[in-house]
Amino acid sequence: MEHNALCLKEVHNVNVVGSGEQYIVLCHGFGLDQSVWKYLVPHLIDDFRVILYDIMGAGSTNPDYFDFERYSSLEGYAYDLIAILDDLHVTSCIYVGHSVSCMAGIIASIYRPSLFSKLVFLSAAPRYLNDVDYKGGFRLEDLDQFLEAMKSNFKTWSSGFASYLVGGDLDSEMVQEFSRTLFNMRPDIALCVAQTIFRSDVRSFLGQVKVPCHIVQSRNDFAVPMEVSDHLHRNLGGGSVVEILDAYGHLPQLSAPAVAIPVLLKHIRENIAT
Q1: 8 A C-beta contact, residue 29 and residue 98
Q2: Which of 33, 54, 80, 221 is the catalytic position?
Q3: Among residues 3, 54, 99, 231, which one is catalytic?
Q4: How far apart are CA 203 and CA 231, in angstroms?
Q5: What are the contacts of 172-176 at 24+ separation with CB within 8 A?
Q6: What is the pTM of this model?
Q7: Is 221 an active-site residue?
Q8: Options 12, 231, 250, 267, the catalytic residue
Q9: Whole-number Å distance between alpha carbons of 205 and 236
């Protein structure tokens, strides 16, 4: 089913909250939904119009709307972002992306740079596979095993992957929360999205980005080595700044909000990318 035949607000569960004049978009990563921003949103609603939405394929979206061809590349997610902003008549915003949604923001900012005054990235990676002179964090054989585990037993894989990314015990509240949103995905859709993400390579796009970028990452992110943030900083075409959080895991806004939220707010409010 084509997106233009549907209400975008319905398809992506779009919510707009807050009373400020400036728009800010919060976009979650793989296996999550907009609830991952629950600790950040209360700090924004007095000063911003906050746009939250669920990326297609999230367990909170209708799987009947998922287009396997469209989401076989990250451009599909970038087109969705642009379409949502156009539908809301937004002409300029701050974009905060987590994980894969950082790369959707990069692509969208190249296509429509005037839409974005700033990009704030959390746990961003332009490529997850290792390459010559690039440490992405995953070997090809690791990825093959990872995808095969998804196919063979999605529920078991979901629990293990949640623990791995969050960096906590299976019984911890945050791991359980991530496991829930991850397992809510339809398995075939989750596999498609994972293949798109982990086989993507956005490095060739980086030099075309002219919008200021703020890169925030945990010191110990099991999916994204710190070298990746340095790669982004060195190769982005516009101004950029990197800040490393004293936190563990790929989802610090959920697992370490006391550390992550003040840093995110600083990068949202201050223009410090050079």
Answers
A1: yes
A2: 221
A3: 99
A4: 9
A5: 174/251, 174/254, 174/255
A6: 0.95
A7: yes
A8: 250
A9: 8
